[in-house]
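Structural prep section.
Before we set up the soaks we want a predicted structure of the protein with NAP in place, mainly to decide which crystallisation condition to try first. Input record follows.
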Amino acid sequence: MIALITGATAGIGKATAQEFASKGYNLIITGRREERLDALKWELESSYNVRVLGLCFDIRREQDVKQAIEGLPEEFKAIDVLVNNAGLAAGLAPIQEGQIGHWERMIDTNIKGLLYITRYVCNLMVPRKKGHIINVGSIAGKEVYANGNVYCATKHAVDALNKGMRIDLLPHHIRVSAVHPGMVETEFSIVRYDGDEERAKKVYEGLVPLRAEDIAETIYWMASRPAHVNISDVIITPTVQANATTVLR
Ligand SMILES: NC(=O)c1ccc[n+]([C@@H]2O[C@H](COP(=O)([O-])OP(=O)(O)OC[C@H]3O[C@@H](n4cnc5c(N)ncnc54)[C@H](OP(=O)(O)O)[C@@H]3O)[C@@H](O)[C@H]2O)c1
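Run finished without errors. Recording the tokens verbatim:
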């Protein structure tokens, strides 16, 4: 079995790669930080008896995505599971103060990047009439919170695409699922606050957030249901989080 996991250099993607490798999947892992891809490939291949292919590219560049997927070695082309995980939030500001550059990064990564990967991987899955696409959305794709405007919009788009893909891929026997996490402690907040680690730390102060492994286990569980079962949608929050804005500290 083969899984392709985007954004495997950190957080949820990395934990998902570790989870799938531990269950014997061969992996294609992607991200922009090559040294991290190399380190993870080494770690997984030496810990588990699996083959790992690292592909270093920016998911926002359509031609690079095309080249990476069309250039896959034959033994990695039969992708069983695609985990559309790469994504980010950039900034947290009211719409009238938002940075256009932040908006473009989120739209280009969370929506357009996810679409590019999906489109080219579908070229491999559809002829096989087999596969499973698991989209990583967010509770920001189910609710809108103050200053979350564009990030929430991109994750609402992922939610809509998840539903649309399920309809379009139905005749091709491809399963489509989404997991929508609440607060998970990863590099997410550091990225959101442009590298301000102190500000990022405060997001998780006084509460027990989800760990990346919690989401990874959920993703693996979705992928490992019997072939006739499609888990459409899972919302998962820490126990101390009731919704996007109600948190117990
Ligand atoms: N953490 C949370 O609280 C939370 C909650 C809900 C949803 N999510 C979603 O979960 C997903 C994973 O986030 P995370 O929390 O694990 O954050 P993270 O620790 O910052 O990891 C993000 C991953 O995405 C990759 N990535 C970002 N931009 C990319 C690009 N342009 N091209 C290729 N790869 C790119 C990064 O790799 P490189 O930097 O090496 O490229 C990294 O591996 C995201 O879609 C996020 O929106 C997170």
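Observations: Strands lie at 2-5, 26-31, 52-56, 81-84, 131-136, 174-181, 233-236.
Flagged for discussion at group meeting.
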